[in-house]
């Protein structure tokens, strides 16, 4: 049985490479948020950049946000996983170098080559631009994604090697002996279980992603090398959906590791936890057809699978991770700071985000809401209010000068500004989607513009709060690498 | 209708989740030192939560599978034989074999693309999205809809297809208007 006793764990500083990841993520995140705001302001008719620039920013925003979600998630996972397994720092650094090379290629493809085929690069759009960009620009963009994908694949292969070297197999690292046999209390810690899940799904997703990118690169220069558009779409969405999903499953490790330090209560790998993560491993691989529900040409069973898994996928998130967070915080005597608040908020963001997600994955609903602003509404909820809040929580945690350091008033205001701004921003997206407002439109119809204006104001609030978070993180970079106690210890109380 | 239900369910469930988080945050200050009994109680509540979700979600998941838009599912009580309209998409325009139908007419759109992926989305005169499917090169997707109201329906592209994606709008007139 999983014990209820908490074993204190030392608060270790982040290594230089982890900080390099976070600094890269922070810089790109800030820039991409500004791009996002500019797009909403264009739709709101607060400014006029024109459709080509709008779609160029759209392409950069999508690719950039997915990329830094991966980078920030990998930084959190690597930081905590190395407590348990022997990871290669060289491979970790190589991934960041390849990421930066890939970003440079993407920026060149978009800003110099004018590529604006969206980050989803749906075949055959990159090769059919109507003269708006060259083959070389499309190749630079897709080549950049490929380079980034290769970096992540190397990282995951190294993680796979380290996990197998320590635990013997993925099955043991996922805690299957304890899940399917007797729970002897010796299941691997949540960080290892989560990292194993992420590694399994991402290795498969990255190989599929690299395959379709390579096929499309060949097609760019040898057009007679035809690709089936439906197959290409399936491969792209499989890769894209698994990869972006995996970033949350990486970042949630911060919650598993840090909240117990604040509450002095354990987050153990019990049977329910192990079952949830094994189920998530399978479901994350098979849920992607919920993006393809309007592709009637797919086999019916595949589309129904997307619908069904959309519902089932809510269980591990709501019942295990979301509820688990509530359990260890309830009557814990936790002394809140901005870091722990952000981590707690992130669990709410993830749990709340699954609601519009499974609703959108319901086929009759998708029929009238697919590719409306409901879609960015749902994924901004669990990414911005969930995944990104986990990253900010981690940044506050590693940068915290000491256990008893009080947050400034500005940080507290920023926290509430972020929470309110993100909720307002995402719910405006959702409401616009309900009203039929199309996503990825450089110019909206007049009836949708009021929502765009409201969203722009909320987006400004979010960015203002995020700038405070990031400024605090940069100001505390020197402290972030030191080993010292950070988590405020929970106060003693009833039964002390 | 589906949009309204989706919005209301989202509000209700999100509020319930928010309530749980606020309740726990409010009750986080005083520490209950012995975690084991609290954990035991919480596991009992979790089991109830799990079964509540099963009882609510599984029937909802199954029920919504009875109303699939594939095949003839999108048409309701149309009068007379089904009118077929060929809808072919190009960067950046729609080519419709017919752009005028009678009120109450059930129509089956045969949707395809001559170049890249597009999204065929039908909006009613109040700009409510009422039906859609993807327009793909090499495939024909069939979507049925019965035009119950007179007026101008619009077809918008809902799959990003390049620089003039947002301008890719066609119109279908229903009735004498």
Walk me through what this model shows.
The complex is a heterodimer of chains A (496) and B (177). Chain A has 496 residues and is an all-alpha fold. Chain A has one domain: Cytochrome c oxidase-like, subunit I domain (Cytochrome C Oxidase, Chain A). Helix content of chain A is 71%, strand content 0%. Chain A has 17 helices and no strands. In chain A, helix 2 (51-81) packs across helix 14. The radius of gyration of chain A is 22 Å and the shape is globular. The mean pLDDT of chain A is 95. Chain B is α+β, with helices and mostly antiparallel strands. Helices cover 31% and strands 34% of the residues of chain B. Chain B has helices at 2-26, 35-63; strands spanning 79-90, 93-96, 100-101, 105-113, 118-123, 129-135, 141-147, 151-157, 169-174. The two termini of chain B are 26 Å apart. Chain B folds into two domains: 2-66; 79-174, Sandwich (Immunoglobulin-like). In chain B, strand 5 (118-123) and strand 6 form a beta hairpin. The mean pLDDT of chain B is 93. Chain B is built from two helices and nine strands; from the N terminus they run H-H-E-E-E-E-E-E-E-E-E. In chain B, strands 3-9-8-5-6 form a five-stranded mixed β-sheet, with no helix packed on it. Chains A and B meet through helix 2, helix 8, helix 10, helix 11 and helix 12 of A and helix 1, helix 2, strand 5, strand 6 and strand 7 of B.
């Amino acid at each position: 049985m999983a014990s209820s006793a908490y074993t204190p764990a030392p608060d270790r500083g982040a290594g230089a490479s982890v900080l390099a990841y976070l600094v890269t993520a922070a810089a790109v995140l800030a820039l991409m948020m500004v791009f996002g705001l500019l797009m909403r302001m264009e739709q709101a008719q607060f400014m006029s950049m024109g459709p080509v620039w709008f779609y160029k920013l759209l392409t950069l925003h999508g690719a950039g946000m997915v990329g830094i979600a991966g980078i920030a998630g990998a930084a959190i996972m690597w930081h905590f996983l190395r407590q348990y397994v022997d990871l290669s720092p060289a491979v970790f650094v190589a991934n960041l170098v390849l990421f930066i090379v890939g970003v440079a290629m993407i920026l060149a493809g978009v800003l110099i080559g004018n590529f604006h085929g969206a980050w989803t690069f749906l075949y055959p759009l990159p090769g059919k631009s109507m003269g708006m960009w060259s083959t070389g620009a499309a190749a630079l963009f897709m080549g950049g994604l490929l380079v980034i994908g290769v970096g992540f694949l190397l990282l995951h292969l190294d993680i796979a090697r380290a996990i197998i070297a320590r635990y013997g197999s993925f099955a043991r690292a996922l805690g299957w002996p304890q899940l399917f046999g007797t729970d002897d209390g010796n299941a691997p810690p949540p960080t290892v279980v989560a990292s194993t899940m992420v590694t399994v799904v991402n290795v498969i997703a990255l190989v599929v992603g690299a395959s379709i990118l390579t096929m499309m690169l060949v097609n760019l220069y040898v057009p007679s090398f035809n690709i089936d558009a439906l197959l290409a779409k399936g491969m792209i969405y499989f890769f894209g959906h698994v990869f972006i999903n995996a970033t949350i499953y990486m970042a949630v490790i911060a919650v598993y590791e840090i909240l117990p330090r604040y509450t002095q209560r354990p987050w153990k790998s019990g049977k329910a936890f192990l079952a949830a993560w094994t189920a998530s491993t399978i479901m994350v691989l098979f849920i992607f057809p919920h993006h393809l529900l309007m592709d009637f040409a797919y086999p019916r069973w595949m589309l129904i699978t997307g619908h069904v898994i959309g519902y089932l996928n809510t269980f591990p998130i709501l019942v295990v991770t979301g509820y688990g967070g509530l359990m260890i915080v309830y009557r814990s005597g936790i002394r809140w700071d901005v870091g722990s608040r952000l981590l707690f908020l992130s669990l709410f963001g993830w749990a709340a985000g699954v609601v519009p997600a499974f609703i959108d994955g319901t086929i009759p609903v998708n029929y009238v809401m697919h590719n409306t602003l409901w879609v960015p509404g749902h994924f901004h909820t669990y990414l911005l209010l969930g995944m990104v809040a986990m990253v900010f929580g981690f940044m506050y945690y590693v940068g915290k000068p000491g256990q008893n350091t009080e947050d400034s008033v500005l940080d507290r205001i920023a926290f509430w500004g972020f929470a309110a701004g993100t909720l307002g921003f995402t719910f405006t997206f959702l409401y616009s989607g309900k009203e039929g407002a199309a996503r990825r439109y450089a110019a909206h119809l007049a009836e949708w513009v009021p929502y765009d204006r409201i969203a722009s104001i909320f987006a400004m609030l979010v960015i203002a709060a995020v700038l405070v978070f990031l400024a605090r993180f940069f100001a505390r970079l020197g402290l972030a690498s030191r080993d010292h106690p950070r988590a405020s210890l929970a106060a003693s109380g009833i039964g002390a | 209708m589906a949009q309204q239900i989706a919005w209301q369910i989202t509000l209700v469930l999100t509020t319930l989740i928010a309530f749980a988080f606020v309740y726990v945050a409010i009750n986080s200050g005083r520490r209950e030192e012995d975690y084991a009994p609290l954990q035991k109680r919480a596991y009992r509540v979790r089991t109830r939560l799990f079964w509540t979700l099963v009882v609510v979600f599984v029937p909802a998941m199954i029920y919504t599978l009875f109303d699939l838009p594939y095949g003839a599912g999108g048409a309701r009580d149309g009068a007379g034989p089904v009118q077929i309209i060929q809808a072919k998409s190009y960067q950046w325009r729609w080519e419709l074999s017919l752009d005028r139908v009678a009120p109450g007419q059930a129509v089956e759109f045969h949707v395809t693309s001559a170049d890249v992926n597009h999204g065929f989305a039908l909006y009613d005169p109040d700009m409510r999205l009422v039906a859609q499917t993807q327009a793909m090169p090499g495939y024909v997707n069939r979507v049925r809809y019965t035009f119950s109201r007179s007026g101008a329906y619009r077809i918008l592209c809902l799959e990003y297809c390049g620089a003039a994606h947002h301008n890719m709008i066609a119109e279908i007139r229903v009735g004498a208007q």
